[in-house]
Amino acid sequence: MQLSTRHLLGIKELSAKDISTILSTATQFKEVLQRPIKKVPSLRDVTIINLFFENSTRTRISFELAEKRLSADVLNFTASASSVSKGETLLDTVNNILSMKVDMVVMRHSASGAPHFLSQHIPAAIVNAGDGINEHPTQALLDAFSINEKTGKLKGTKVAIIGDIMHSRVALSNIYLLKKVGAEVVVCGPPTLIPKYIGNALNVEVSYNLRETLEWCDVANVLRIQLERQNQVLFSSLREYSLAYGINRQLLDDLKKEIIIMHPGPINRGVELDSDVADSKQSIILQQVENGVAVRMAVLYLLSGRNPARE
Hints:
The protein is an alpha/beta fold. It has 2 domains: 138 residues, 3-Layer(aba) Sandwich (Rossmann fold), CATH 3.40.50; 152 residues, Aspartate/ornithine carbamoyltransferase (Rossmann fold), CATH 3.40.50. The chain has 12 helices and 9 strands. The strands form 2 sheets. Strands 7-6-5-8-9 form a 5-stranded parallel beta sheet, sandwiched between helices. Strands 2-1-3-4 form a 4-stranded parallel beta sheet. Helix 2 crosses helix 12. The radius of gyration is 19 Å and the shape is globular. About 2% of the residues have low confidence.
């Protein structure tokens, strides 16, 4: 098994076959993670650097754990503790690191397109761990893995992506992936948080009515309000947003069916989700976190070029 690309820059560049290969490989690695000894030698002697120019907790820890479970040699880099803070360029930083014979780079950057730029200038395999408001491909892959695990299928599944669509790289990657595997997608949120082009450009339905959207969907993937990315006031208050688009227990109980609740984290409790929803049996948020390690193991393994073998 191998992918049609040597980098994971975004879901947009992946084929449906690539997505299927990653998800099926992740299933095998999830089995490994259930064993008493969770480590396999799949990436022994492969050196991976986690290059994070943007703050991250969940994604960085998930990648680091995936790398160590695969027996890779791991280096961690944060911009605030490096020469980047002294004015060093991205390319200089990476070339200095590559002189240490690094095989793969996992990169998060606030500038959209930064991993794509890097892939054109260095020989190492690049994994995009989130670039600006562009894409977050491994989050979309773990979301798809989690949906498939819970429902048994992706094709035909009705998925609502709810919240701050405009500033979310998770939303964009999820839309690309879900459309490629045949799922039905609706985006829902305030008009000020949904780009005007998105319906026609990405062939998704747009809704501004939360209750109608929840009545339609099988899965609700709820996004965080990203105040740090908003350079203007897009709604009057978090309380107003919560009243119109927050999901609470009463709202779910009023539905004629039970839906699956997802969230990429971190959750603004009491804003997009109430605690009794986030912690309910309908929520698979913690399963998403667990599945993230298996999916990232699969991505790293497949991009490493190692011959597939059962460990």
